[in-house]
Specification:
Helices cover 39% and strands 16% of the residues. It contains seven helices and six strands; from the N terminus they run βααβαββαβαβαα. It has a six-stranded parallel β-sheet. The chain starts with 8 loop residues before the first strand and ends with a helix.
Length: 179
């Protein structure tokens, strides 16, 4: 059964995979072969892809963006977190690592860091996703702080029937869909 709304597919690409000279051509071939609309593919990259040649990484990201694919910084805040590279790269999404939502109410510093990262992403015009949301109180916190989306077991666990599981999970969280 067709989905009533488009679902973006997020694919993690390792730093090693991203070093391939043919990564852009490989992505383009997959899009052609599968018929997936480029805007429904989001490639998630960790900050480690910038180590080595920032210029080369930026060129690949720009070429992927020109295909219509969106790019996300995955696990933000736990890697090399050099904020200087953010403005020059074509990322559209900032995915904040689960570390910062595990128990933000237990320390004011953790909540301050989470709030700051969300605000940074929003002020840079990025879609902000908080990973690792597992309980309603975490969902309430990230929505209150202004995150655009969440990812985590609260919305669903890995399933052998993902389409059915996704529909069931989303039905119970209309506030997220109607934001």
């Amino acid at each position: 059964k067709a989905s009533p709304y488009p679902i973006q597919v997020a694919v993690n690409v390792s730093a090693l995979q991203f070093t391939s000279e043919m990564i852009v051509e490989e992505v383009e071939a997959i899009l052609t072969r599968t018929g997936l609309k480029p805007e429904l593919l989001q490639i998630e990259l960790t900050e480690s892809v910038m180590i080595g040649s920032l210029n080369q990484a930026a060129m690949k990201m720009t070429r992927l963006g020109s295909l219509g694919v969106t790019l996300a910084i995955d696990d933000f805040g736990t890697g090399y977190s050099c904020l200087g590279y953010l403005p020059g790269l074509p990322f559209s999404t900032l995915k904040i690592d689960r570390t910062f939502i595990r128990n933000p109410h237990s320390s004011s510093e953790g909540l301050t860091m989470l709030r700051s990262m969300i605000e940074l992403g929003k002020k840079m015009g990025l879609r902000v996703i908080v990973e690792g949301v597992e309980v309603e109180s975490q969902l309430d916190t990230v929505l209150e702080l202004g995150a655009d989306d969440v990812q985590g077991f609260l919305l669903g666990r890995p399933s052998s029937t993902p389409r059915t599981q996704l529909a069931e999970n989303l039905a119970g969280h209309n506030t997220i869909l109607n934001k």
